[in-house]
Structures are given as structure tokens and as C-alpha cells.
Amino acid sequence: MLTLLTSLLLTGMSGSAIAEGLSANFKNTDIHEFINTVSANLNKTIIIDPSVQGAISVRSYEQMDNEQYYQFFLSVLSVYGYAVVTTPNGALKVLPERNAKSAGIRLLRSGEIPESDEIIVRITPLRNISGRELAPLLRQLNNAAEGSIIYYDPANVILMTGRASVVNQLVSVIKDVDEKANFQVETLHLNNASATGVASLAMSLYSNGGGENASGRILAHVVADERTNSILITGDEPARKKMIATLKKLDEERGALQSGNTRVIYLEYAKAKNLLNVLSGITSSKSATPNESSPLVISSGTSNEVSIKADEETNSLIITGPQHLMNDMQEVIAKLDIRRAQVLVEAIIVEVSDAEGLNFGIQWMNTYAGGTNFSSTTGGSVTTIPDKGIVNSLSGLSGLATGFYRGNWAGLVTALQTNSQSNILATPSIVTLDNMEAEFTVGQEVPVLTGSQTTSGDNVYNTVERKSVGIKLKVTPQINRGDSVMLSIEQEVSSVSDSATNNDLGPTFDTRVVRNAVLVGTGNTVVVGGLLDTSNNHSENKVPLLGRIPILKYLFGATSKKVNKRNLMLFIRPTIIREQDEFNRVSQQSRGKFNQHDLKTAADHQVEQILNQETGLPGSANELQQVLGNINAFYAGQSR
């Protein structure tokens, strides 16, 4: 029977209660009676589960206050396998421990957990370690019948259910472990060794799978940063210090060229020999001049050196030296070894003559903006071509078209070919890389006597050099921002002068040279030139014998003098080729031109053979076609 002991201490004022105590003495008492007595003493509503049955025996020898008495009540029920759960409205439920976990247990937060046997739920976050490895250890400290340990991976928290006293102990364990695992991160830069190799070696020395040694103690973890050739170390302070000391020993310099840090970089676009010369200038000092046989040795200002050698057979660079210098070199090489755009350079080298005494007119035109036609006759007028009638006005032009325009290149070639005053010397078409010089040469080697020596035996030894004459064109395209190309042009047209072929001092050469740089958009045509060459032709026609008689020879002969002027002009059009599809398109267009030319030649030859067989008259295809044209014109006139 529960006995309530109340003692009153009286002071100067009567009837004032200053203290009261509770004690318990039960022997084989029904558990329902025990619970009801506690409910009355604590003035709490207690709900008893129907499965709660049995008798209890308990006795207290000390007086307790209400809180102590409540904790005594919880402990007694725990001994007999029962638990108390607080409901949201403040009532208490007594039920078996195995059912307590699913009975709406109260969630307590940090600082709210009392030291009692009440069943509670506690959520504990982890900051430095993962709860995946810690949760199995905590389950061994908790009673599985009355509690549980659950790890929630996305939030890295642990949910614990159990008696408040046990949960408090588990929280203390978690905090202690989590604080000791407050790892910091340190960075160690390596000067000689490779970060990847050193990190792998260090982990194999100190770890036994997952970064633990044989005793299971967590050591420092290392991660290699290849970009900066550094190692990141994380772990507790003693482990970090031990790991850093080991890493520094592994990074001790053993001689850069003998350290084993060697890389072979295979180039995709650039030439290894050319790139070696470029790399020789990226540092302020170098200990050797690069050549084909000896490697380039570049100093970094300290005892560290990097050696670079080019292998032309495999088009590769072999780099040996400290890791950080090799990384810098590799970044530079990657930026230089890129696919370069190409430029298709099409040109027309033409000579325009005015042997008939006609002036040469120049028409400045633009496909989209109109142009001006200067008449080729002396004193001719100036005609303005409207911007919408250029195509219809081309037939009326009496001179040559020039200037910047987006016209039909094939049409320009045809116009020059059909002009009797124009003589196309060459139509080169060259594809070259950006900033790479392209050269076109058509001509011959002319011997030039440079010296003569006579020996004592009257033997004459002549020294002869050969000089190239003909057509030379050198073009260096440079692709600028956007679709513009800067062309460095060097054009030379040379020949042996007819007027000095019998000169004892040797032949005389006529040379016309143009060196220029122009900026033109891709697909546009620009004209460079305007070099005039004047030649005087003197000829005599006379009657045999009579034409040799002095004075009378003028009556039986004729003398003519003719002045020929030739204007050398260069039409040039660059086209930027960036992708393989553009290159294939240009190649297909070039093949189409040759196919059309072959078909036209074959057709002309067939017509010539048929006409020769039918008429028995020899003649070229052009002459026969002209005859056919006259016949057609005659019948056309008869029909009218």
C-alpha cells in the first residue's frame, strides 16, 4: 500500500506547508492498483493498455518529490517490461515495451531530454562523419526491443528511439565521435614528383582499404589535383601531419631529368620541329639551343629544368622534368596544336594590249551597288550603270571590269577569254593553310653567262648561271576576325627581251613585279596591277634586189613602226575553308570545271571530224563553227 507522508514545520505563522514527501511500499500488489495510486498522487491521467497485467513488489526508503516520484514510477514499469508514452494532450499511456515504438512517441530536441526511462525519439545531425558507418555501432548500445537506430542518408542524420536515459548516452557518444572527426583540409604543392603517383603510393602505404590501417583507425585521406600538381590532405591533425611528412619525403628532388617524369605528346596538327622552336621562347632563359639532334633544355629560374625533344618521325614531343613545369608546357602545346583554317586562292594573271591604238577603259562595278563605265574610245563619255541593270549592261561595256565585288568568277574568266585584247597568262588555284605561303611558278631556266676564263692552252671556260623567267605568284593569306583575309601578294612576270637577244653581254630581261598587301572579304575579288609595258616593233618590207639600191630602195620598200602597250593585271579571290564539308564542296566544283572542259573539247573534236569527212576541207573546230554560224545567219535572213 502506498503511504503518503506529510510533515509540516511550523514557523511564526501557523498553517503554512513548506515541504511534503512521497514514498512507496508495495508487496504483490496488482499493477493496475499501483498505476492508479500514482495517477492520484501526481494528478495525471494515465491510460492502461489491456495487455498490462501482473503484480509488482517495490519499496522506497527515501522521500521523493513529484519529479523523483514520476521517474521512480517509470523505472518500476521498465523493470516489469512496460513503458510510458506521453500523448500530445499530456496524458500518459502504459503499454508493453515492444509496442511503445509505434505508439506516437514524443519527439524531443536538443536540450530537452530528461534523464528518465520515458520512451522518446531524438534526431541527431552529423557534421563531420557519415552516419552510415556509425549507425551499426550505436545499435549495439541500444535495446532493440524498446528502441531503434535509423540513418537517413540525404540529410546525414540519425533517428534514435528508446528510453531517454539510453538516448542521452547515445547522443553523448555521437557528439564525441563527430567532434573528433572534425577534419580540416590542407594543400601540399609538389615541386618534383607527380601528384597522382605520390597520392596513390601514400594511400597504399597507410591505408588498408577505405583509408584505414590494420587497427581500424581512420587515417588521413589524400586526393591528387593534377591541374596544380598538388595533393589535398584531410583528416585529424595528427594523421595530417604524419601524411604531410611522408609526402614531402616522396617529393624530394632527385634531379629533374632523372626523376622519371616523362611525357610523350603526340601532335595532331602542328609540326613537332616547328613547335619546338616556339617553346624555346616561352621562358626567359634556356641552357641549350634547340636543334634536330639535341633536346631543348629550359630552366625555370631554379635548379629545376625541363627537357623537350622533337621526334619528327612520330610528330611528337618528349618532355622530361618537374611535374608543374610539364603541366605548364602541356597546356601551351594544347593551345598551339589546333586545326588551322585553309584558304582557297584563285587568281587570273592577264595581259591586256592596245596594239590598235585604243585606250584601255576601266569599269568600277559592284554587284549590289552599281558602277561606272569609262569608254575605251578617245574622248569618250562616261556612262553610269544603274544598280539594278548591271547584268543587262554588261554587254555594253567597252573596257575591263575591276574592283571589289561578289561577281561570278567563271563569268569573269569567260569574259577575259573572249576579249581579243586580253591574253590570260595563267589561272592558278591554290589551297593553303592560314599564314602559310603558297607559291605558283610557270616559266623556264635561261642560261646567263657570268664569266669566262682562258687557260694557257687557249681553252675557254665559261661560267653560266641560270635565271628563272616566267610567271611567279606568292601569296600568304592571314585570316582576320570575321570573314576577312589579309593577302600578302608578290607577283612577278619576266621574259627575255627580243630587242637584246644578240647582245654580247648577255640577254636582257623584262621584269614586272608587284608586292602588295590587301584586305578582302572571303569570296570577294580584288584587282592588283596596272603595270604597263611598252615595246617598239620595227619592220621593213622591200622588193628583192631593188630594195637594196641606195635612195631608190625607198621606192621599192616599206618601213613600219609599231608601239605595243601591255597592261599586266592580277585578279585574285580568297575563299576561307574552315570545315571539311566546305573543302569537299570546293573540290567538287573544281572537278566539275575539268569535266565540262573535257566534254566541250570532245564535242568540238567530233564536229571537226564529221565536217572534214563530209566536206574534205581541213579546218579547226572554231573556224567550222564560225562557218556554221554564217550559214545559220544566212538562212535566218532568207526566212524574214
UniProtKB/TrEMBL annotation:
<feature type="signal peptide">
    <location>
        <begin position="1"/>
        <end position="19"/>
    </location>
</feature>
<keyword id="KW-0998">Cell outer membrane</keyword>
<keyword id="KW-0732">Signal</keyword>
<dbReference type="Pfam" id="PF03958">
    <property type="entry name" value="Secretin_N"/>
</dbReference>
<keyword id="KW-0813">Transport</keyword>
<keyword id="KW-0812">Transmembrane</keyword>
<dbReference type="Pfam" id="PF21305">
    <property type="entry name" value="type_II_gspD_N0"/>
</dbReference>
<dbReference type="InterPro" id="IPR013356">
    <property type="entry name" value="T2SS_GspD"/>
</dbReference>
<feature type="domain" description="NolW-like">
    <location>
        <begin position="262"/>
        <end position="342"/>
    </location>
</feature>
<dbReference type="Pfam" id="PF00263">
    <property type="entry name" value="Secretin"/>
</dbReference>
<feature type="domain" description="NolW-like">
    <location>
        <begin position="121"/>
        <end position="179"/>
    </location>
</feature>
<dbReference type="GO" id="GO:0015627">
    <property type="term" value="C:type II protein secretion system complex"/>
</dbReference>
<dbReference type="InterPro" id="IPR001775">
    <property type="entry name" value="GspD/PilQ"/>
</dbReference>
<feature type="domain" description="Type II/III secretion system secretin-like">
    <location>
        <begin position="415"/>
        <end position="578"/>
    </location>
</feature>
<dbReference type="InterPro" id="IPR004846">
    <property type="entry name" value="T2SS/T3SS_dom"/>
</dbReference>
<feature type="domain" description="GspD-like N0">
    <location>
        <begin position="25"/>
        <end position="94"/>
    </location>
</feature>
<dbReference type="InterPro" id="IPR038591">
    <property type="entry name" value="NolW-like_sf"/>
</dbReference>
<feature type="domain" description="NolW-like">
    <location>
        <begin position="185"/>
        <end position="254"/>
    </location>
</feature>
<dbReference type="InterPro" id="IPR050810">
    <property type="entry name" value="Bact_Secretion_Sys_Channel"/>
</dbReference>
<dbReference type="InterPro" id="IPR049371">
    <property type="entry name" value="GspD-like_N0"/>
</dbReference>
<protein>
    <submittedName>
        <fullName>Type II secretion system protein GspD</fullName>
    </submittedName>
</protein>
<keyword id="KW-1134">Transmembrane beta strand</keyword>
<dbReference type="GO" id="GO:0015628">
    <property type="term" value="P:protein secretion by the type II secretion system"/>
</dbReference>
<dbReference type="GO" id="GO:0009279">
    <property type="term" value="C:cell outer membrane"/>
</dbReference>
<keyword id="KW-0653">Protein transport</keyword>
<keyword id="KW-0472">Membrane</keyword>
<comment type="similarity">
    <text>Belongs to the bacterial secretin family. GSP D subfamily.</text>
</comment>
<dbReference type="InterPro" id="IPR005644">
    <property type="entry name" value="NolW-like"/>
</dbReference>
